[in-house]
Amino acid sequence: MDSGQSRQRMRPWLEAKVEAGNIQGLEWLFREKKIFKVPWKHGGKHDWNEADSTIFKEWAIHTGRYREGVDPADWPTWKTRFRCALNKLPDIQEMKNFNQLDGSDPFRAYRFLSKEEINQAKSNNKEYREVCSLASTPGTPNSELPEKDPSEVKIPTQGQLPNFPSDLEDLELEPIKSDPNSTNTQPNQVTTPANDVKEEPSDVEMTEIGDGLTSRGPHPQQAIVPLVVRPPEPQAHEMEIIICYCQQQMCSFHIRSPHGCRLFYDPERNDRILMEPFKQELFGPDQFEQLEFPPCETNNPGQEEHTYKLLSALDRGMLLECHDGKIYATRKSRCVIFISTPTVYNGEPFKLERNERVQVFDFHGYFEPMLQRYLTGGSSKPQAHFMIGFGQRLMSSNSDHSGLLISAQVYHSRAKQLLNQVSCASPLSASIKISMSDDFDKLFSYLKLVKEEGNGHVMET
Question: Does one domain contain both 140 and 193?
């Protein structure tokens, strides 16, 4: 790009590229409606090649962010910058209904808007976008920031970003404030006590059913209902991991390997090019399950940019292994990792030091004894999981973690199964209440009885 000339805006530049049709996958989807598609293959796929992401490289060259023969290639960053630039344009709209992110040739669909559509969108206030502000003015809550026109929204410059040291050793970002109107909740939380559930009033008499589901009379408060295990009981080494980006669940893993797992982000899989003895020291044992963080794809450019800052420092990852009911964690990555677990420091978060193997959960030493005390009313309900915060400090084990860019919940599978059984079948749970049958219920029961007796059709009335 000639530094002596002003750069062509993205809209006309991209429109010319689509019209030319010389970039693989960048083409019209519906020309008459100005809808086009952009190739969006993840760089970690086995069949990915540079041609699949040419448009991202071309934009990096056009903006001067990449100089061929001078700067190193950085495909994930080019892709992030391209999408951030698209998302802040008022005259290009993503057509999510047409997106196809699965299959061999995934793509995202966008539409070039006319001036009339842009003006209409502004007047109706429909196209405003929120940008995650991690560098807001001190003392000014995010909720008090004024709404901005999309054309005025800018990605924070490097000087406005939080301090990201080169090794990210001291990275502790402030939590992103969640939308108070949001209905998102933490996924797969342990079932809340049944006593907290409010029952709706009924206009008919209620009949009470005991916890055992077989007794018609009042259940004895001192008896403990036997736990009937229907699904196969998890092995003592099994774990379940839930990955969240800003409270949104992105993926989950069930670890069945007795060796453990490595959780990392490296679409290029550079761990495969190294040989022993360095490979195990850098990435852990080969027999560990290799689990990769999912890509961050969101309409919030600020969140996406900062999430990839963290992911880029998780290329070596962290190790999780479970032996004899004890879960151990080892941090290999440059990204700082914080743990909040009920078995250490009473749940107070602590920093996981690099290359130190630390016990972070104990099934036999913590969970089982506390579960027995809970069933006899001697303690609160135990936790079957612990929390991980990547690059940001956890506030406490019970606080809202929606402001964390990347977080994880790690469950001990057997503890989780026992806790679910207790939540549903313990005498500490509230009694089940069912209304007595009215005339329509009796009619419906009669029709089901007729069907069971082989009368193949329902009588007309």
Answer: no
